[in-house]
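[retry 2/3] Transcriptional regulator: previous attempt timed out, resubmitting with same input.
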Amino acid sequence: MSVFKPLDPLLHSQLRLAVMSLLISVEEAEFTFLKEKTEATAGNLSVQLDKLEKAGYIGIEKSFKGKRPLTTCRITQAGVKAFEEYVENLRNYIE
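[retry 2/3] Transcriptional regulator: success.
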């Protein structure tokens, strides 16, 4: 019998898990892309991105594209590790 490790509560949120899943496949993405793919509201997505950034799972860069603000998110090494551990722990529950 394998020992079940607790699932990372930060990644257990549907929206945060969706963001991490997207970022792990594309490495970096603009806020508008994440908003469109997750179908989240701008406010909710902002809050969840902030939580992921504070945990060190993603980096957020704010700049401008012309006169429009541009927010780009990228997954960090810590984020990749946390995501991989989450998936592995989830796999242990399923098997």
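[retry 2/3] Transcriptional regulator: The chain has a mean pLDDT of 93.
[retry 2/3] clearing retry counter.
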